[in-house]
């Protein structure tokens, strides 16, 4: 039984290693387009470095450039955070696509576990299939910023499943379970 357990752990490690290799090849070392979000990345960085605050939702900031009122704004994204450390927006986009894809794979594997898949290797394979699907890869390569929200959606689905099975008979106001429920319900409204 111990040999089977060790082989299963080795198999799971190989699955995650192969998934990370594929993800790095697809996102870190390949093309990608940031044409649609590059101006927002640059102007938000300029405004933050000049004013030390997030840009207002007003056309009066930065010569009338509307930074925050665009649904595809970059203000609160991983890409914008990484762009402070890079000069090239494409490098920040590639690294954020790679990190968000790993985040999505782990969340998808957790979702498969929450849905009742018991085999850990099946959870890992399922997580990478969701993440490296043609839909995800195509939208990331095209430069659709809103696609990153899908990576967070699987985590919210896991929490929704766990909250639906939780026992609320003795929930206390402002307890950890109460805050978890409030945060996840609010996140589902805004995502």
Features:
191 residues, mainly alpha, 8 helices
- Count the DSSP helices: 8
State mean pLDDT (0 to 100 scale).
78
Shape: flat
Largest sheet: none
* SSE succession: HHHHHHHH
Number of strands: 0
Helix proportion range: 55-70%
What value does the Rg take, in angstroms? 20 Å
Q: Which residues sit in consecutive blocks of at least 5 with pLDDT less than 50?
A: none
Strand content: under 5%
Q: Termini distance?
A: 44 Å
- What structural class is derived from the secondary structure elements? mainly alpha
SSE layout and pairing:
Elements: H1 2-28, H2 38-51, H3 78-83, H4 89-114, H5 120-131, H6 134-142, H7 148-164, H8 176-190
Helix pairs in contact: 1-4, 1-5, 4-5, 4-7, 7-8
Question: Can you describe this structure in just a few lines?
Answer:
Helix content is 66%, strand content 0%. With 191 residues, the protein is mainly alpha-helical.
Provide structural commentary.
By secondary structure, the protein is mainly alpha-helical. It has eight helices and no strands. It has helices at about 1-30, 40-50, 80-85, 90-115, 120-130, 135-140, 150-165, 175-190. The relative contact order is 0.12. The model has no long low-confidence stretch (mean pLDDT about 80).
